[in-house]
Amino acid sequence: MDRVRVRYAPSPTGHLHIGGARTALFNYLFAKHHGGDFIFRLEDTDIERNIEGGEASQLENLEWLGIIPDESPLKPNPQYAPYRQMERLDIYKKYTDILLEKGYAYKCFCTSEELDAEHERQVAAGKAPKYNRKCCDLTPEQVKANEEAGMPYTIRVKVPEGKTYEFEDMIRGHVSFESEDIGDWVLVKANGIPTYNYAVVIDDHSMDITHVFRGEEHLSNTPKQLMIYDMLGWIAPTYGHMTLIVNEERKKLSKRDESIMQFISQYKEDGYLPDAMFNFMALLGWSPEGEQEIFNHDELIKEFSEKRLSKSPSMFDKDKLKWVNNRYIKERSLDEVVDLCLPFLKEAYDLSQHDDQWVRDLIAVYHDQLSYGKEIVELVSLFFEDELHLDDEAKEFMKDESIPQTLKVFKEKIMELEDFTKENIQACIKATQKEAKVKGKMLYMPIRIATTGIMHGPDLASSIMLLGKEKVIARLEG
Ligand code: GLU
Questions:
Q1: Is 255 a catalytic site residue?
Q2: Dihedral (C-alpha) 205, 206, 207, 213: value to the nearest 10 degrees?
Q3: How would residue 1 be classed by pLDDT, with cut points 50, 70 and 90?
Q4: Atom 5 in ligand 1: which residue has the minimum CA distance?
Q5: Are 67 and 26 in contact (CB under 8 A)?
Q6: What is the distance in A from the centroid of ligand 1 to the CA of 10?
Q7: How many domains does the chain have?
């Protein structure tokens, strides 16, 4: 096999979203598995829709995830540069001239009004709309006259008749399309800018791209691209069209869907870890051979095989992402988790009453449980609120008649404590057990609810220590 070269080719019309990141990731894993190159290139021909900073943001987010391109506009290989389509217009022009000269393409002077009217007429007649080839057989003289009259034109490909375009898709197997279902489509728009289906062929060929993994929405574009390869006498790359990513209601992810954060930057902002995202996204439409689900970057490269890409839609399971992220957080040192959480805590709470050690101890209590950085804010809220808000279950529990006595004894022990350490607090709980003659749930739960307001939380003695003597006594009195 030739050296594997794959590419991710976003339009800089938006930021890196989940679907794009998954496409980039699978191309990247495939390239690295085969010791090949991963290229980042831009389809920036939709000038009006390009956004300021779109390219940089795509690249930054990819790199944050650990998907580092071997070539990009910022890291060009002179053999293949430039990497932005708008800087490649002369390259497309060269091939357009060849296609025109060989009679594979022609200039079309139809106005959009004419095209719209024809479209409506065909639809009204119950036909699938396609270009009526009005300009296909213009004589060279007519073309010249139109051009001299300054009439704008597009360049259309003359779709061959009676041809079947077929290919072996790495994911879907054998796929075929009939040329009669395809109208003469536009290669170059009136402003001289090529369309996606045309430019992508020239780019993939001239950049020696060997394999293409892309979204299934491009499956029906493939025959259009294959006909250009045919006309120019080139060999097309091997394609793999990936299935959709759907939400928990089995609907295609879309920007309007508020149930899932769409952009990689949002996960970064909420304190998800890049290596966990990398791992989680690799499982969106690909599965490893065994049961193992946690794989680091290099393990994924080693394990990846296009043969195990899924043929059915993959669900973006937010709870699974949290689970994966938690697994990675647990592996991090406490220092790293403190760095992850601190900005969120600072933003949410006034920490001026507490020293660094207290903040560190607070985070340590949640280290094993934390799913993502920002989650720390809700987890620790009980340490910052003045009033506790018990839920119904907790209120119900606190009705047991043994509880006032248990809490009274515990409060007395706590008031006597000079050194408010975890060990001493633990000893107070033990002493309460003896004196109030309660144990197990009837000992721990009243103390937990009365001091923290919740029935399930981190280690009780640590929580009480972090709350501080004053607050604990106030809560026991309240
Ligand atoms: N810019 C296209 C997209 O983002 C690339 C399609 C392709 O990979 O051919 O969907």
A1: yes
A2: -20
A3: low
A4: 9
A5: no
A6: 6
A7: 3
